[in-house]
Every structure is written in C-alpha cells, then in structure tokens.
C-alpha cells in the first residue's frame, strides 16, 4: 500500500504544481473534494482493517512472549529481559507513513471541506473593480449558505434560503469561464430594468440616490477618481467614476439574453430575465461586469461577501461592509 499511496500523493502534488505553473486550469473545490474522499477511504480502512490488524499482531507478540516466559520459568530460569516486548509492540501499533499522510489528515481535511463548501469560504480580492468598497489585497469571507445550500463542485442548490437582493456584494462563477470566481454588486434582480446612462444608475425608472463625496485617491495607480455615495434598497456604499472614460460601453460581447439589452452612446439599458442577475463593480469605469459579458445565472451563485478578515497592508480594513 505504501507504493500505491506514494503514487496517489504524487498525482495530487503534480496537479497542484501544474496549476501553480499555469499548465492546467485548477479547480480547488474539486481538488478538496477528491482529497476528502481519498483520505476518507484510508480513514475507514484504517479503522476497520489496518488498525485491528496491527492490534492483532501486537497481541500475538504479547502472547508469544508470555508463553516464552512461562516456558523459561518452567525450566527454572528466573532472570530474563525485563523490558519485554514493549518496544516491538509499539512499533507494530504505530501507523506507517502512508496512513499518517492519508487517514491521519482526514479529520482536518473533512472540517475544511465542510466549512468551505457549506458555511464560509475565504477569498482574496485580486483587482480594483470593487474599489472603494473592497481594495486589492483584502481577504474576505463569503457566506456560502445565505443564498441556499449547494452541493460542492457541481454547485447545485439543494436547500433554498434567501434570494439575492439589490445592493448585495456577491461572489459568483464568471459566466464566460465558470472555473473563475468573480465578485460584484447586485444592481438588478429578475424582472428589473437596469439603466446605466451617462454614468448614473437607474433601476425600474427610479434614479438610485447619489451624493458626491471628496475625490478618492488610489495609492496603487496614483490617481484621483470622482467618488459618490449610492443608496440602493437600504444599502449605502461608495462608487468611483473616471472622468476621462466615455459613458458608452466599449467591447461588449455576445451573451445569452443579449437581446434584452440596448446599447447607446450614453450607456446601456437591460431588462433582467427570470433567473438572472445584473452585476456591476463599484469602480464603475474599471470593472468588467454585466454591461460587458451579460447576466449571471442563478446556478452560478457562490455566496454573499460580508466581511474583510485581513489585509496585511492595512489592518484598519478588517470589518464588515455593505
């Protein structure tokens, strides 16, 4: 079994290495699921077969030693090794390395799998599309059960919970490439008509209340942007606009239900289909979102982002957000 286990662990390491080097498109959810299954099989085998086998061997050794002592005493020999078979017994009872690295890790991997799949999943913000709400380098937590319980890997909902609301910051599988996770703000739910014209957001004909704030300085790009405060369905958050960028949406691609969107020099107007959501980044002129690649299907939802648990460059970032 040691050789087989070495091959299995080698395959996991090779996959992780190829993923790190960009040779394959990684899927951490699938990797964690397989690790849970494989180590779980070893854990069950250890409990039902390997451990009892080692215990029987240790018991047999003890019995043989007891018989040997009895025979020596029968022969009148009273001086013998007092240490007995204990070192040998402990060696027989010890887990081999291949069980230490499989069955021994199963409880930890199982806890991580359950937490990540059904409760909370950590994410790192890689880009500035959600500035000023979320900054590059923010480590956030995503509530995986807020929008319902989903099966890992295939992401199929099995238990319903809350529906996404306007203003929620949501993580979802990027529709053009579902292996990637994106994070944006929900601005349109099924049935809504969302208009983003001349850099102002309107939902169902009602302009979203907006208030000008002092300009925002982005230390990474060393640039100032116009900053505003929006209020959408009881949620208050900041947005940015780049005065140097035009209002129209350049480079929009073909996407499902694109006939529900009308593009013009002023921007875009979309009617959100049933079972779909319209997403936008808070950094409005620096976000590839539903204006460009279309709606997010309900099946692509991952969870609701709600808390920055760490930013190693700025500890003041830690806390909840809207």
Molecular structure report:
The chain has six helices and 18 strands. By secondary structure, the chain is α+β, with helices and mostly antiparallel strands. Helix 2 packs antiparallel against helix 5. The longest helix is centred in the first third of the chain and has 47 residues. The protein is elongated and about 105 Å long.
Features:
single chain, 2 domains, elongated, Umud Fragment, subunit A, membrane, alpha+beta, EC 3.4.21.89, Pept_S26A_signal_pept_1_Lys-AS, transmembrane helix, 322 residues
Query: Which sheet architecture does the biggest sheet show?
Result: 8 strands, antiparallel
Task: Name the CATH superfamily classification of the largest domain.
Answer: Umud Fragment, subunit A
Q: In whole angstroms, how far apart are the ends?
A: 52 Å
Indicate the percent of residues in helices: 25-40%
Radius of gyration: 29 Å
Q: In the CATH hierarchy, what is the class of the largest domain?
A: Mainly Beta
Give the topology string: H per helix, E per strand.
Answer: HHHHHEEEEEEEEEEEEEEEHEEE
EC number: 3.4.21.89
Protein name: Signal peptidase I
Pfam family, one: Peptidase_S26
GO molecular function: signal peptidase activity
């Amino acid at each position: 079994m040691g050789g087989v286990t070495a091959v299995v662990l080698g395959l996991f390491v090779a996959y992780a290495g190829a993923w790190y080097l960009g040779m394959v498109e990684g899927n951490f959810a699938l990797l964690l699921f397989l690790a849970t299954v494989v180590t779980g099989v070893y854990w069950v085998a250890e409990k039902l077969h390997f451990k009892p086998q080692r215990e029987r061997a240790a018991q047999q050794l003890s019995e043989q030693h007891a018989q040997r002592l009895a025979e020596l005493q029968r022969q009148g020999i009273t001086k013998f090794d007092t240490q007995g078979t204990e070192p040998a017994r402990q060696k027989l009872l010890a887990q081999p390395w291949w069980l230490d690295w499989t069955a021994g890790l199963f409880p930890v991997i199982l806890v991580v799998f359950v937490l990540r799949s059904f409760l909370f999943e950590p994410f790192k913000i890689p880009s500035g599309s959600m500035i000023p709400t979320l900054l590059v380098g923010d480590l956030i937590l995503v509530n995986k059960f807020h929008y319902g319980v989903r099966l890992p890997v295939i992401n199929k909902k099995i238990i319903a919970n809350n529906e996404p609301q306007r203003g929620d910051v949501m993580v979802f599988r990027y529709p053009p490439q579902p292996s990637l996770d994106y994070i944006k703000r929900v601005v349109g739910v099924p049935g809504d008509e969302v208009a983003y014209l001349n850099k102002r957001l309107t939902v169902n004909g009602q302009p979203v209340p907006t208030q000008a704030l002092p300009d925002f300085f982005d230390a990474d790009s060393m640039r100032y942007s116009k900053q505003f405060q929006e209020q959408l369905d009881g949620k208050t958050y900041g947005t940015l606009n780049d005065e140097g960028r035009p209002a129209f949406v350049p480079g929009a691609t073909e996407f499902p239900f694109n006939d529900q969107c009308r593009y013009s020099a002023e921007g875009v107007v979309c009617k959100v289909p049933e079972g779909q959501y319209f997403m936008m980044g808070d950094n409005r002129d620096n976000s590839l979102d539903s204006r460009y690649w279309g709606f997010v299907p309900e099946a692509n939802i991952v969870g609701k982002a709600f808390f920055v648990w760490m930013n190693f460059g700025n500890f003041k970032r830690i806390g909840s957000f809207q």
